[in-house]
Amino acid sequence: MDNEAPHINVTQLSVAYGDQWVLKDVSMTVPGGQVLAVIGPSGCGKSTLLRVFNRLVDRVAGVHIKGQVRVGDFEVIGDHVDLVELRQKVGMVFQHPNPFPFSVFDNVAYGPRLQGIKNSTRLRILVENSLKQASLWDEVRGKLRRPASSLSGGQQQRLCIARALAVSPQVLLMDEPTSALDPLSTAKIEELVLTLKGQYTVILVTHNLQQAARVSDFTAFFREGHLVELGPTKEVFTTPRQLATEEFLTGRYE
Amino acid sequence: MTVHQKNLRTERVQHALFLAAAALLIALGFAFWGTLGWGALRFFLRHGLNRTILGLRYHPIRGQFGLLPFIIGSLAVTLIATVLAYPLALSVAITATMVLPRRWLSGIRQAVASLAAIPSVIFGWWGLAMVVPLVRNLGGGTGFSVAAAGMVLAAMIVPTLSLLAIHAAMRVPERWVEGSLALGATPDQTLGRVVLRSIRAPLVEAGIVAVGRALGETMAVQMVIGGQTFMPRSVFAPGSTLTSEILNDIGLLPPGALGHHVLDVMALLLLLAMYGLVLLVERIGGREVG
Description:
CATH topology of the domain at 8-98 and 170-250 in chain A: Rossmann fold
CATH architecture of the domain at 8-98 and 170-250 in chain A: 3-Layer(aba) Sandwich
CATH superfamily of the largest domain in chain B: MetI-like
CATH class of the domain at 8-98 and 170-250 in chain A: Alpha Beta
Structural class of chain B: mainly alpha
Strand order of the largest sheet of chain B: 1-2
Oligomer: heterodimer
Number of helices of chain B: 12
Radius of gyration of chain A: 18 Å
Number of strands of chain B: 2
Helix content of chain A: 25-40%
Helix content of chain B: over 70%
Largest interface: A-B, 28 and 20 residues
Strand content of chain A: 25-35%
Largest sheet of chain B: 2 strands, antiparallel
Largest sheet of chain A: 6 strands, mixed
Distance between the termini of chain A: 39 Å
Radius of gyration of chain B: 24 Å
Shape of chain B: flat
Number of strands of chain A: 10
Shape of chain A: globular
Number of domains of chain B: 2
CATH class of the largest domain in chain B: Mainly Alpha
Distance between the termini of chain B: 51 Å
């Protein structure tokens, strides 16, 4: 399984909105099948970085991207990138649960249906498997026709994870996925991230340092658009190499 | 008198005022239905139901009160207007909310709102100058026709319909759009499968409101439809609607004149149709969208 989840290589990536550079000359590698936590103060470019990986950053008017990003051997940056193919490879989970105003089933089946899957048996199996993978199946079986909005916030977020997994991505981007959730729901999502490890390369932006410590294999610390430090999570948290990292981790910065 | 007592008194006066206003409105509603219903009843008792609602000849002086040409005229004009206006308004709304930069939106809304404020007589006037000659060239005849009325009405309801559709589309949160794109949907797929799907109910509602406006409009229709009381042979032939015929006959059939109450029948038919539309909107509006 491990070799299915691709490495992500970032080379001299810079991103600007208008003439304001929000990411500056970032180079890094995320090993396949691992969880990378991205931490840093607000406005450090974390979310922008995440949105470069699936090119959702294109939606911002006047955005410039320089440099190279590769997911496996798929070139992410460039004018002729097939965004549909990219976004099928690289799924995303957002800060606030954003299920569509449809039924639970239709939410999860949304991606597969886009890909032209119409066979109802196949869709049902896909939906069931995705919900099982997202640890939501036991809570929603028999309620698949209910509106997604009838689920709790934590369930909605796991539904969104199931929805992303139903497209069979190789990479999962998570943008502060638990910031809107209570501690119990947060714990469930963290457990879930641990089970997804290996099968997917996960990039998790988080404001919650304990979360980064609990679930990630690697941690990247960003400040003012620069990648300050990236290393195995244990090392970054116990023996940071940069003073700025240490200051941030000990709460003397922000 | 303490402040508290004073407040209590003000409150009591307020409640009485509100109650009076509500009672007045309810009484007005009953009076409306009552008057029209009574008039229509007297008419039906004297002239029968069949020859009226389903009759083809309308000639009050000769005692012929067939209303079918007007019913068909109203339906045809409304259908033409809605079919022409709806796609146009939807395109306006999609362009304004999804395609053009966000900062243009308020300008577009104001422009559309100012169009929606134009009195219908001005649309009729514009119809005389532009639409009637156009229809004359397209379909022959004088140009005063069911088609001309439908087109003028279409122009008249496009602004209202666009505004309603814009408001509906603005209710679609950005996070649904992003969620769809992030799953590999193209912008077109996102539009069809998330945006339009999630606002189906308000869009249907907007359509019903537009139908109501088209059905109830009188002046703009009367100015271009040609005012003929036979069943129109084609959309390019002149005709009449329930509303335009009421306007036409008010002077012809004053209270006391034989057949005066046919006006009550026409009014009641319109009222029933409108009430049906209102009920329909309420039923759809009752369903939660998001």
